[in-house]
Write a structure and sequence with these properties.
By secondary structure, this protein is an alpha/beta fold. Helices cover 34% and strands 17% of the residues. The protein contains 9 helices and 15 strands. The chain is globular, with a radius of gyration of 20 Å. The N and C termini lie far apart (51 Å).
């Protein structure tokens, strides 16, 4: 399509009703026209409900593993997609529920194969830039007894036949698709590898320890760590991840680039911070490690710092306060915490 300057970009966010995706929609709709695509496989309508009245925001309920014809949707006529096309595509589609990991395996495989293909085909059709949200899982598990920070050129140690392979190997394959579409069709495709992220709108009762820590602390119930007292990880606040993604899209870089906090924190320390923040009488207990809650490597974020002028700015203490405030506000909703 001819390159024309419009007053506002048309931006497609696939997986936009998810935890990170909804924050991305919220930020981008301030300056652009945003098309949010999701099928709620592991996300929630509540995440984008406040955006629906915005004239620059349109939601389409669609499974991206099936082809998507944007010009066939009447609600998108006001965005003049047939004339203006799409300028940017963010791809975040992939169910990531730890609790329902096994049940979601097929959807993960489809999101990381047919889904990313359909997104790349749209990028090719409209000559749009595409940013793929990959994951730290492409590097494999954290080497035992080390806090070594992983650089982007580390090849990874992933078992393509493991119980986690639908997600871990799926993310690797999706990166391969993005790279090859770039080479074959001369597209501007980009990859960021996102490490553990937290903040408001994380799913409750999903074996994601941070939001469940907060909920349990509110109710003075035990905070369960799926691992031992040495279980540690890095945690990056969601708005910092969104900032990195927008900077990456605006850059000339293709990546992959690590996005996350490079500070290693024990889960027990986080649990104690939450207990103190809420003045809770909860205790910390330990349980068997979950399949999807394993220790992951720490990111080396040198490239992000030097080439994107990006680094996490929200401290863990402030990020937890914001997350606690969000869940406390939701306590007024019917059925919260049940």
């Amino acid at each position: 399509m001819p390159q024309v300057i419009f007053d506002k970009k048309n931006i497609l966010i696939i997986g936009g009703a998810g935890f990170i995706g909804s924050h991305l929609c919220e930020e981008l709709v301030k300056e652009a026209k945003v098309i949010c695509v999701d099928n709620f496989s592991s996300s929630s309508e509540a995440n984008i409900e406040h955006l629906l009245p915005d004239q620059n925001f349109v939601f389409i309920n669609h499974d991206i593993s099936l082809p998507l014809d944007l010009e066939a949707h009447a609600e998108l006529k006001k965005f003049k997609v047939a004339f203006q096309g799409i300028q940017e595509i963010y791809y975040l589609a992939c169910p990531t529920s730890p609790k329902n990991f096994t049940a979601n395996r097929l959807n993960m495989l489809l999101a990381n194969s047919l889904g990313i293909k359909n997104a790349l085909d749209l990028a090719n059709r409209y000559q749009a830039k595409l940013l793929h949200f990959s994951s730290s899982v492409v590097y494999g598990p954290r080497p035992l007894g080390t806090s070594l920070k992983i650089k982007e050129d580390f090849k990874g140690i992933v078992d393509n036949l493991s119980e986690r392979s639908a997600y871990d190997e799926g993310k690797r394959f999706a990166e391969t698709m993005v790279k090859n579409y770039r080479d074959i069709y001369k597209l501007d495709t980009k990859i960021i590898r996102v490490f553990r992220t937290y903040g408001p709108r994380m799913t409750l009762h999903d074996d994601q320890m941070l939001p469940d820590f907060i909920l349990n602390a509110m109710n003075n119930e035990d905070l369960v760590i799926f691992g031992d007292e040495n279980f540690s990880s890095s945690f990056c606040y969601v708005t910092d991840v969104v900032d990195a993604a927008i900077k990456m899209m605006a850059s000339v870089l293709n990546g992959p680039i690590n996005v996350g906090s490079d500070e290693d924190v024990k889960l027990s320390e986080i649990a104690n911070l939450i207990i103190a923040e809420l003045g809770s009488s909860s205790k910390i207990v330990y349980s068997e490690q979950k399949l999807f809650m394993s220790e992951l490597p720490l990111p080396d974020i040198t490239i992000a710092k030097n080439d994107l002028s990006w680094m996490p700015v929200v401290t863990l203490a402030n990020g937890l306060k914001k997350t606690v405030f969000d869940l406390e506000a939701k306590r007024q909703l019917k059925g919260f915490g049940e």
